């Protein structure tokens, strides 16, 4: 079958189309005919060799953490009623860039007929993580939330879910196209991170007290600057690291303002928990209450181009690979 492998750690060019044997569903697994694959920035980082203390992958490997497709076969102990159903599944960090993929049966979430495979793939991780973020940070109606990286795949979902939760949203994005998108999605105020005075403008948009919650999907110095905008007694989530590292917030500084710090470790989910949240996101999409933003799609053979597009940071929303 067709697949794409990372043959070594390095740039996007290490992603190479290959032919590999078809997998067979084992106990507790299903075999999925993949239609679309989620792409997230961390996959590009893993491919480059970053994060080996977190991710135990060794080239050559097939990337791809989240898939949308149709169940072709079920393994021992799996309800055969899954056969032929449209599903999404989170695979961990590998296995998705292929015509056929194995998924744990307890990771499956059904895709409503009203939702395309591309949209389903776009939500399989970002829709889940966004929902978990709002729950973990205990966002409440009437609060102010600052979303850093608001035009990205997860940022665009966060804006919509936060507005639906009854909060006032201030989005931070870079450039005219991205800020316009965030405004279109419902943000109450939008700040252009390309401006040297973006922190001051964000502070003005938030008013004197600051943000009850800051959701930092960027990390690095940008995230650290956003930390200064958290209100006393607020919450700060440092879950994004596309800049190469999470926001380097000093816990002592947070304690001095009674700010609760959260990170990527607070977003871990079991496979059934992930599937349940994915089902909620997919139902919201089917009902028109949540719109995934897909900036570009690439065929499986051009996975390297998909990674280049992600790393360029020029696109709006998600990049999806189609099979």
- Number of DSSP strands? 15
The total of helices stands at: 10
SSE series: EEEHEEEEHHEHEHEHEHEHEHEHE
The biggest sheet, with number of strands, parallel, antiparallel or mixed sense and barrel status, is: 7 strands, mixed
Query: What is the percent of helical residues?
Result: 25-40%
Question: Structural class, please?
Answer: alpha/beta
How would you describe what is shown here?
This protein has 10 helices and 15 strands. With 323 residues, it is an alpha/beta fold. Strands 3, 4, 5, 6, 7, 14 and 15 form a 7-stranded mixed β-sheet that branches. The chain has a 6-stranded parallel β-sheet with strand order 10-9-8-11-12-13, with helices on both faces. A two-stranded antiparallel ribbon has the order 1-2. Strand 9, helix 5 and strand 10 (189-192) form a beta-alpha-beta unit. Helix 3 (126-136) crosses helix 4 (153-164). The chain starts with a strand and ends with a strand. The model has no long low-confidence stretch (mean pLDDT 95).
Summarize the structure.
This protein has ten helices and 15 strands. The chain is α/β, with parallel strands linked by helices.
Key structural traits:
323 residues, 7-stranded mixed sheet, 6-stranded parallel sheet, 15 strands, 27% strand, globular
């Amino acid at each position: 079958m067709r697949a794409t492998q990372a043959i070594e750690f390095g740039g996007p060019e290490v992603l190479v189309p290959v032919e590999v044997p078809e997998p067979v569903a084992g106990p507790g697994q299903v075999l999925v005919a993949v239609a679309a694959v989620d792409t997230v920035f961390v996959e590009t980082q893993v491919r480059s060799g970053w994060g080996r203390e977190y991710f135990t992958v060794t080239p050559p490997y097939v990337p791809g953490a989240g898939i949308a497709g149709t169940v072709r076969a079920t393994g021992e102990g799996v309800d055969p009623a899954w056969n032929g159903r449209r599903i999404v599944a989170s695979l961990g960090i590998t296995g998705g860039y292929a015509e056929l993929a194995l998924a744990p049966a307890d990771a499956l979430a059904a895709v409503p007929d009203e939702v395309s495979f591309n949209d389903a793939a776009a939500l399989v991780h970002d829709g889940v993580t966004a929902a978990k973020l709002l729950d973990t940070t205990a966002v409440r109606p009437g609060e102010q939330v600052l979303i850093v990286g608001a035009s990205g795949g997860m940022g665009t979902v966060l804006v919509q879910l936060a507005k639906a939760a009854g909060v006032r949203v201030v989005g931070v994005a870079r450039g005219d196209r991205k800020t316009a998108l965030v405004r279109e999605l419902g943000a109450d105020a939008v700040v252009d991170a390309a401006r040297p005075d973006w922190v001051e403008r964000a502070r003005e948009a938030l008013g004197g007290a600051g943000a009850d919650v800051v959701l930092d999907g960027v990390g690095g110095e940008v995230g650290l600057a956003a930390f200064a905008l958290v209100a006393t007694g607020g919450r700060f989530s440092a879950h994004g690291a596309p800049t190469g590292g999470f926001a380097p917030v000093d816990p002592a500084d947070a304690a001095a303002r009674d700010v609760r710090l959260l990170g990527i470790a607070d977003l871990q989910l079991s496979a059934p928990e992930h599937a349940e949240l994915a089902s909620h996101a997919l139902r919201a999409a089917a009902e028109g209450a949540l719109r995934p933003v897909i900036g570009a799609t690439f065929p499986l053979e051009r996975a390297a181009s998909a990674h280049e597009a992600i790393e360029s940071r020029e696109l709006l929303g998600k990049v999806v690979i189609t099979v």
